[in-house]
Predict the 3D structure of the following.
Amino acid sequence: MVVEISAKEKENSAMSDSDLAASLMDEVIGQRGVREPVKAMLERAYQALSRRNSAWTRRRVRAVFNKEANRIDYREITEMRAVVEARKSHAAYREETARLASMAVVRATAHHSDLDAR
């Protein structure tokens, strides 16, 4: 039994890489302001990605975002994932730091109230 893959199926499988890259680019961009221009969002993504690898250009960021790129390198996907992961890690660090700081304030307040009661 011979199974042929149609050109349409090949095209859809190629599009999955660009869809993945575009969704990762959305995550790299992060939260968008209500009236924030697209140019500002793409600049923010470019700044984050070019810090990791100078091969990123504004044009490449725009092509990935608009799904216009003919090919997506594995390196680009791993770099976008690394930026997203670093952002999540930093957010968790800030959350933990804020939690510890609030615990220290509660502890200091309780200590001062014990001294005032004596």
Remarks:
- The chain has a mean pLDDT of 86.
- Residues 5 and 113 are 76 Å apart (CA to CA).
